[in-house]
Amino acid sequence: xxxxxxxxxxxxxxxxxxxxxxxxxxxxxxxxxxxxxxxxxxxxxxxxxxxxxxxxxxxxxxxxxxxxxxxxxxxxxxxxxxxxxxxxxxxxxxxxxxxxxxxxxxxxxxxxxxxxxxxxxxxxxxxxxxxxxxxxxxxxxxxxxxxxxxxxxxxxxxxxxxxxxxxxxxxxxxxxxxxxxxxxxxxxxxxxxxxxxxxxxxxxxxxxxxxxxxxxxxxxxxxxxxxxxxxxxxxxxxxxxxxxxxxxxxxxxxxxxxxxxxxxxxxxxxxxxxxxxxxxxxxxxxx
Length: 287
Fold this sequence. Notes:
It is built from ten helices and eight strands. It is an alpha/beta fold and 287 residues long. It starts with 18 loop residues before the first strand and ends in a 7-residue tail after the last helix.
């Protein structure tokens, strides 16, 4: 960890209403994700500023000016998370900014180089050249697949799914499918359970051959009613009575069919996706 300003003293203003910068020579997503995970440990009212694609010394100087100006206006030094890999650019930030600098790559890469006896390739971003990355191509293919198989709109090539999510309408199937595709390259289909399925007391016929790939999502009726009312206010579809009925029937079907399932009521997309991957474990994926 490198700090480019004096340590905070007891006389400094408390850590609230701070501006936090996330600087990267790539998209800045890694810096922001990692930084937010750390900041979540504090009761901090922070303004977030992402500065992506800082890939030249000139851009580094511009970033320094913005950081230092913010510090002057606010009367307290900004917090700066960085995942810069270019040492010349990083040197500008380290030596000239008046913020508290947290160099996340420097914190972890240098000790790993020493432990492994290897030099880092200092690659910018997850996909340094997307046009040549098989992993990137697989992720795009998974996104297209998940869009094509959203909400049961296509039964074609369900066998190609890594996972098939089932649940009542608005239980979180679509955002979870897209997150799995975008983050992990998982080909995720999703299929709604509807009143006709409950009347038959059976899974939709198209899903039966793929039972081992099915994972169920459920949700508290009260929360489901709230979500549906935002879409179709004061409708039977959104009524608490109908939501209670659909959730009861969907969960009963999952139990009868031996389908693994979880409630999305209080879980984030990240938690839902992680649980699904732990349970389903698509063999072709590398972690």
